[in-house]
Amino acid sequence: MADLPALAPLRQETAPLRRKIAASLRAAIESGGLPPGARLVEKDLCQQLNVSRTSLREAIR
Question: How many domains in the chain?
Fold first, then answer.
């Protein structure tokens, strides 16, 4: 049996939706749309972004 070449570890990519949600939240924070100390209500954010609670939670994590 021939020696196999060394394999580089795989990078696990995050789902594109999670990245889009995170980017949207960051943009809202940076622009002042979500001011410092503002309460983030999961239900409201899901409605505004039109995403599931699971996707939102994963993006926040």
Answer: 1
Q: Of 28, 27, 21, nearest to 57 (Cα)?
A: 21
Condensed to tens digits (0 to 9), the pLDDT of residues 30-57 reads 999 988 898 999 999 999 999 999 999 9
Q: Among the residues of the chain, which ranges form H helices? A: 16-31, 42-49, 53-60
31 in any annotated domain? yes
Asked if residue 46 is part of any domain, the answer here is yes
Host domain of residue 39: 16-60
Query: Quick check: is 54 in a domain?
Result: yes
Q: What is the pTM of this model?
A: 0.73
Tokens of 9: 């570890």
